[in-house]
Amino acid sequence: MFGALGPALRHGLTAVNDAELGAFHSVAIGLLVAAVVAGAAGQLGDLGPGEVWPFIAIGIFVPGISQVLFVRAIRDIGASRTIIITGAAPLLAGLAAILFLDEPLRLGLLLGALLVVAGAVTLAWEPTRPAGWQPIGLLWAFSGVLLFAVRDTTARWVIGERDVPGMAAAVYLFFGATVAMVAYLLATRRGQHPLRRAAQTVRPFVVAGVLLGAAYCLLFQAFERGKVTVVSPLNATYALWGVILSALVLRKTEAVTPRVGLAGALIVAGAAAVAATR
What we know:
- This protein has 14 helices and no strands.
- It has helices at residues 2-15, 19-40, 49-77, 79-86, 89-100, 107-124, 136-161, 166-188, 194-200, 206-225, 228-235, 238-249, 251-254, 258-275.
């Protein structure tokens, strides 16, 4: 689902070329999806402010701020390349988990790091660029990587410290993200009626929002059951799926070359090497 998210957002941006609105729609629809799923599973329950506020705080940054960065990167450098770069997040998440969550350091993490770096270098030397390429998109993507890594580590720690079901955690994460996005739009687009504009542009981003909401529900279910150094690398296989789906669905705009595919494969292999050392 995370792999399909990039192409879905890219498709939405072809209809509405507004990264901030794309980010808003994806997190707001994600909130609705997560609430429906968590409610149907009976996981919302009676949770107090002390149990949910950390997830709301995390959500302000991820998927709140990070979603703006992610959509901007897709707009400027394409879905496949953005997804490949963000696939490096498990390496940072694994290192943070070792430093702050006392998870063990193993040889596979070092091997994974080398593979991720090799994938990044392969992508950097790729001469072909998609239409509308803007180098600043690389900054948006790498900034998003840092926030994704923080999300994995802090979410796993908070879930471990508080008895909050994974899907309920996803709901409050999206709530924090949606509040942050509404505040951002109102603060930066005064006099432009941003919420009215948002209501008029929701349709192209419905698929992306559904994918994002469902993906987070599944991810947080995984964090309930596994370590960051296992779950995060497995989640990072979305980089390879993203490249494959971009090549199939966005052939004319993405310029997915064999070298781009190799970069994605190397980063996924690095994630797998980390996961294999559980």
